[in-house]
Design goal:
Layout: H1 2-16, E1 31-39, E2 42-49, E3 52-57, E4 62-64
Antiparallel strand pairs: 1-2, 2-3, 3-4
Length: 70
Protein backbone atom coordinates (compact mmCIF):
# COMPACT_ATOMS: atom_id res chain seq x y z
CA UNK A 1 0.00 0.00 0.00
CA UNK A 2 2.85 2.35 0.83
CA UNK A 3 4.45 1.76 -2.59
CA UNK A 4 1.18 2.50 -4.40
CA UNK A 5 0.92 5.84 -2.62
CA UNK A 6 4.55 6.70 -3.36
CA UNK A 7 4.18 5.90 -7.07
CA UNK A 8 0.87 7.75 -7.34
CA UNK A 9 2.20 10.82 -5.54
CA UNK A 10 5.39 10.89 -7.60
CA UNK A 11 3.39 10.74 -10.86
CA UNK A 12 1.09 13.50 -9.64
CA UNK A 13 4.01 15.68 -8.59
CA UNK A 14 5.86 15.18 -11.86
CA UNK A 15 2.76 15.80 -13.95
CA UNK A 16 1.93 18.98 -12.02
CA UNK A 17 5.41 20.45 -12.44
CA UNK A 18 5.37 23.31 -14.91
CA UNK A 19 7.85 25.92 -16.06
CA UNK A 20 7.71 29.22 -14.15
CA UNK A 21 7.56 31.21 -17.38
CA UNK A 22 4.49 30.02 -19.34
CA UNK A 23 5.40 32.15 -22.38
CA UNK A 24 8.44 29.97 -23.08
CA UNK A 25 6.61 26.66 -22.71
CA UNK A 26 6.36 24.56 -25.84
CA UNK A 27 4.15 21.88 -24.29
CA UNK A 28 3.23 22.39 -20.62
CA UNK A 29 1.88 18.84 -20.22
CA UNK A 30 4.81 16.56 -21.01
CA UNK A 31 3.45 13.65 -18.97
CA UNK A 32 0.03 12.28 -19.90
CA UNK A 33 -1.89 9.51 -18.18
CA UNK A 34 -3.04 6.79 -20.61
CA UNK A 35 -4.58 4.03 -18.47
CA UNK A 36 -4.26 2.10 -15.22
CA UNK A 37 -5.38 -1.17 -13.67
CA UNK A 38 -5.01 -2.92 -10.34
CA UNK A 39 -4.06 -6.60 -10.15
CA UNK A 40 -3.76 -8.39 -6.80
CA UNK A 41 -3.38 -5.06 -5.00
CA UNK A 42 -0.66 -3.70 -7.29
CA UNK A 43 -1.22 -0.67 -9.50
CA UNK A 44 -0.04 -0.82 -13.13
CA UNK A 45 -0.10 2.27 -15.34
CA UNK A 46 0.74 3.36 -18.85
CA UNK A 47 1.88 6.96 -19.18
CA UNK A 48 3.18 9.05 -22.09
CA UNK A 49 6.22 11.30 -21.69
CA UNK A 50 7.11 13.39 -24.73
CA UNK A 51 5.12 10.99 -26.97
CA UNK A 52 6.98 7.93 -25.61
CA UNK A 53 4.90 5.35 -23.73
CA UNK A 54 6.08 3.81 -20.46
CA UNK A 55 4.73 0.96 -18.34
CA UNK A 56 4.92 1.72 -14.59
CA UNK A 57 4.08 -0.44 -11.61
CA UNK A 58 3.65 0.19 -7.91
CA UNK A 59 6.75 -1.84 -7.10
CA UNK A 60 8.87 0.95 -8.53
CA UNK A 61 9.54 -0.36 -12.03
CA UNK A 62 9.29 1.57 -15.25
CA UNK A 63 9.76 0.17 -18.75
CA UNK A 64 9.71 1.96 -22.09
CA UNK A 65 7.11 0.47 -24.42
CA UNK A 66 8.33 -0.03 -27.96
CA UNK A 67 5.64 -0.74 -30.53
CA UNK A 68 6.17 -2.80 -33.64
CA UNK A 69 8.92 -5.06 -32.36
CA UNK A 70 8.78 -8.82 -32.94
Amino acid sequence: MKKILIVALSIILVSCTVNENPEKQENPKRIKYVEATSVNGYLYQIIKVDSQEFFCNSRGGIIKLEHGRN
